[in-house]
Write a structure and sequence with these properties.
The protein is an alpha/beta fold and about 260 residues long. The chain has 2 domains: about 140 residues, Murein tetrapeptidase LD-carboxypeptidase, N-terminal domain (Rossmann fold, 3-Layer(aba) Sandwich); about 100 residues, LD-carboxypeptidase A C-terminal domain-like (Glucose Oxidase, domain 1), CATH 3.50.30. The protein is built from 9 helices and 10 strands. A 6-stranded mixed beta sheet has the order 2-1-3-4-5-10, sandwiched between helices. A 4-stranded parallel beta sheet has the order 6-7-8-9.
């Protein structure tokens, strides 16, 4: 990790401290470039679609940048999927990190540009809060991808449940993987009935369920009291092995999951 690009493809970033960001990466002997979307606001998003789209294209096109870290989640990535020039990403592959709403980009970059990505902490409320040891572990997880799981025979694929389900209105060839998958899921502040509804939507998506060889349930932070029953019912209907990993998702311990890597 020699030079990091910071982009905001989703929600607006409130009062980003440019000096603090640069001091943080300077202390790690890493160059950093903060792109315009981090300073823009359009409704609840980090600037217009054009600004956020341009930052994706420019950060990937910049040959000096080897790693792109998203500033935060929120909403907005879905609006960009049909506008992205995936050839730019395919021809300029680099490490790309984010989660939550950025799940839409992880899925699309993997499918349309054959780019394995990283589901992990973003800049705000994540990277900037890391001490030296935590950042070194984060950096190592990206530079030397690995993941401990008892499940096998698939690529790690998934992320934020609500964002995954929001892709179901698209053509399946624009997001569904070609390989069998180990599906990992997380979410935050969703009531029981919405989690139930979204998992049911997955069950009804036979093109997806036919590829699922195992499930990893991450953290369902702030979700309802029936969440364990809903998860159990989902697994019974899928009839695949599963694991719980509370260190995936909207939690302080949020670990790096190498999206698109085979286990």
């Amino acid at each position: 990790m020699k030079k990091v690009g910071i982009i905001a493809p989703s929600g607006s970033v409130e009062n980003i401290d440019e000096i603090k960001v640069k001091e943080f990466f300077d202390s790690k002997k890493i160059e950093v470039e903060i792109f315009p979307s981090c300073f823009e606001k359009f409704r609840y998003m980090a600037g217009s679609d054009d600004i956020r789209l341009n930052d994706i294209h420019c950060s990937f096109s910049d040959k000096s940048i080897d790693t792109i870290i998203c500033a935060r989640g929120g909403f907005g990535a879905l609006r960009l999927l049909d506008k992205i020039d995936y050839s730019i990403i395919k021809e300029n592959k680099k490490n790309f990190i984010g989660f939550s709403d950025v799940t839409a980009l992880l899925v699309s970059f993997y499918k349309n540009a054959n780019l394995p990505c990283f589901h992990g902490k973003m800049l705000v409320n994540g990277v900037l809060n890391m001490d030296n040891i935590e950042f070194e572990n984060y950096k190592n997880s990206i530079e030397n991808p690995s993941f401990k799981t008892g499940l096998k025979n698939g690529i790690l694929w998934g992320g934020n449940l609500a964002t995954i389900v929001s892709l179901f209105g698209s053509k399946t060839e624009s997001y569904l993987p070609n390989e069998d998958i180990i599906l990992f899921l997380e979410d935050i502040n969703e009531p029981d009935y919405k989690i139930d509804r979204m998992l049911t939507q997955i069950l009804r998506k036979k093109e997806l369920t036919s590829k699922i060889k195992g499930v990893i349930f991450g953290s369902f932070t702030g979700c309802g009291k029936y969440i364990e029953n809903i998860k159990e019912e989902f697994i019974q209907k899928l009839d695949v092995p599963y694991e719980n990993n509370p260190d995936i998702g909207h939690v302080n311990s949020n670990i790096v999951v190498p999206f698109g890597y085979r286990v």
